[in-house]
Structures are given as C-alpha cells and as structure tokens.
Design brief:
Elements (H helix, E strand, L loop, with lengths): L2 E5 L8 E5 L10 E10 L1 H8 L17 E9 L11 E5 L9 E4 L3 E2 L6 H6 L1 H14 L6 E5 L4 H12 L3 E5 L5 H7 L2 E3 L5 H8 L5 E4 L6 H8 L5 E3 L11 E2 L10 H10 L8 E5 L3 H10 L5 E5 L2
Parallel strand pairs: 8-9, 8-11, 9-10, 11-12, 12-13, 14-15
Antiparallel strand pairs: 1-2, 3-4, 3-6, 3-15, 4-5, 5-7
Bound molecules: NADP nicotinamide-adenine-dinucleotide phosphate.
C-alpha cells in the first residue's frame, strides 16, 4: 500500500502521521504523480491547527500539501501530451501533496536543470504572487510596498514587480535587507514606525501587497491613501479595516507556473533558500515552521 502523511486530527505537529493510504486512480483529466518533493507552506500549518476550517473544510484523514514536483505515474484517459515518466510540477487543486503519490488536475513540465526541491517550492508562491499582483492592477512606474518581501511569496512578488518596471519597497527583517536589495527592491524594516521608514524612501506608495499577515495594514492604508489598493494574502482581520483578502482560487492565476518556471530555469527568478527533510518527517517540518528556529522554505523529499 502507498504511504502518506495523514492529518489524524487538528492539533500540534504530532497529529501528522506517516501511514498507509489507499491507492487512488487519476480521473479522466488527471495525473497520478510519484512525489519527489512537496513544498510546506504556512497555510499547511494553519489547516493542521484547524485555524482555517471555513476556507479549507478538511477532515481527519486528509493529506496536506498544495505543491509537488514528481514523475508522472499514471495518466487519465482524456489527458494528451503527457506520458508516464515525465517530470512535472503541480499546484494541487485541493490538498494531497505530502504522500508517496498525489493526484493532479493541472501541471507544468519540469525543466531538467531545475531541482525537484526548487520545483516543489515554486507553485503556491508563484500562483499567489502572480495572482495578487494582477488583482492590485499595478503597472510600470508605480511604487509598490510589499510586506514580507523576503518570504516565499514576497520573494517571487518582488522580482516579478521589479521586472514589470515597478519600484518595490520591501518590508523585511534587517537580516534579509541584502537579499531584498539583490531581488531589486528597497528594503525597510517591518514593525513600529514602518510608515515613517517607507516615507524616507518614497512620500507615498501606489499599492501594498501584504504577504505576511503579521501587521502593518494600518500603515499600508496611510501610505496608499486608503485601502482600495491594499490587499492581503494572510491577515484574517483585514476586512475590518476595508482591506481585501486575496483567496487562492483556480482562476486567480492559472498561468502562474507557465510564466515563472522558465524564469526559474533561466536563473532569472530566485527562490527563498530551502531546507529539505524526508517526507516521513512532515511533523518535524511543521514543528520547525512554527518554532521560528529556521529561516528557510521547507521542502519534504520523497524517494
Ligand atoms: N491567500 C493565499 O492564496 C495565500 C497563498 C500563499 C500563502 N499565503 C499566506 O501568505 C503568508 C506568507 O506565506 P509565505 O509562504 O511567503 O510565508 P513565509 O515564507 O514564512 O514569509 C513570511 C514573511 O513575512 C515576514 N514577516 C514576519 N513578520 C512581519 C511583519 N510584521 N511585517 C512584514 N513582514 C513580516 C517574515 O520575516 P521573518 O523571517 O523575519 O519572520 C517572512 O519573510 C502566509 O500566512 C501564508 O499562509 C496565502
């Protein structure tokens, strides 16, 4: 029987249990993937804790994980252009990434020179970054403040916005300032006094992308002259101050992987540094994610 990391109940990291699961067959328009690597996102931890049951109504027995890279293991009867053995990356429609096998409804070929780990770290961040930049309707010449510019989503968003001709002011901790500069942004420290520090760089900003959910929205509203062009990916209280929450839906940015994967393959897109653990250590990965001990994107490696 195949194995996966199953959510035995909502709770601390130990509720993630490596165990036998049934063999799933792909639907007519799906692929079954032998998972080589699975990205771990802060959203996975929110689901595990039971913090986001309205957005993700999962039950005990679910397998977490939105993003994988792997090898096609079985092809649905209506799928064309993909064969068993092909290397692909996938943003999974629902969950299901932390297993030996995953079922995917959409995929992008993985270039040979992109590692399994990089490929698995890209999908969720790329989709969120491309999607929210579109929703903010930012254009060349504008100034964009990104809260969490050195995080997984922020790293991708900063580079895409800079490439599109925007000036990006990136809120990040001082240890990440050089990294944000390397990405093409102007770093400022987050926390109290953020608005003053941003004003030293630019008197106002045209739009704000909150990729941290850790505060800063009141400053963002003040800097942008109102909440209209401020959006968050992560602050559940944003609507209380008029800020829109950008939800990951299938139509937000279906083009995201086709746009970003070639950039990654060409070395034109950098990702946040990764730390890898075996797939069997998903509970430890979640413990690390929530401990603040590490500063890297976590990726689980399959066989
Ligand atoms: N709605 C969606 O569709 C969607 C999609 C993807 C992700 N998300 C959510 O978006 C958030 C970011 O995801 P991620 O994968 O990029 O996480 P991540 O890699 O952990 O990045 C978060 C970044 O925020 C920084 N940060 C911490 N406190 C901050 C503050 N007060 N102000 C500004 N930045 C601060 C962190 O810096 P330090 O390292 O210094 O703490 C880190 O660089 C998560 O909450 C995730 O669940 C939502």
């Amino acid at each position: 029987m195949p194995k996966a990391v199953v959510l035995s109940q909502f709770g601390p990291p130990e509720v993630l249990v490596w165990t036998d699961v049934p063999t799933f067959e792909p639907g007519p328009e799906q692929l079954r993937i032998r998972v080589k690597a699975a990205g771990v996102s802060p959203t996975d931890a929110k689901i595990r804790r039971g913090d986001v049951t309205a957005a993700f109504p999962v039950a005990a027995g679910a397998v977490l994980g939105f993003e994988v890279s792997g090898v096609v293991d079985a092809v649905g009867s209506s799928v064309a252009g993909v064969r068993e053995g092909d290397a692909v990356i996938c943003l999974l429609g629902g969950l299901g990434g932390y297993g030996e096998f995953a079922i995917a409804s959409s995929w992008t070929p993985k270039p040979e020179d992109v590692s399994w780990s990089d490929a698995a770290a890209l999908p969720s961040s790329a989709e969120a970054a491309v999607g929210i930049l579109k929703q903010l309707e930012v254009t060349s010449g504008e100034t964009l403040l990104i809260l969490g510019a050195a995080g997984s989503v922020g790293t991708v968003a900063t580079q895409l916005a800079v490439a599109d001709g925007l000036m990006v002011i990136g809120a990040a901790s001082p240890r990440d300032h050089e990294f944000v500069r390397d990405l093409g942004g102007v770093p400022v420290s987050y926390g109290a006094g953020l608005a003053d520090r941003v004003r030293e760089v630019s008197p106002s900003v045209d739009a704000v992308l909150d990729a941290s959910g850790m505060g800063g929205l009141p400053d963002a509203i003040a800097l942008a002259g109102g909440p209209k062009r401020v959006m968050t990916l992560a602050d559940p209280h944003a609507s209380e101050i008029g800020v829109a929450f950008s939800v990951g839906t299938p139509d937000r940015a279906p083009e995201a992987l086709d746009r970003t994967m070639p950039l990654l393959a060409d070395g034109a897109l950098r990702l946040r540094q990764q730390r890898t653990l075996p797939l069997t250590d998903a509970a430890e990965a979640h413990r690390l994610l929530e401990s603040g001990e590490i500063h890297e994107k976590l990726v689980l490696l399959g066989e």
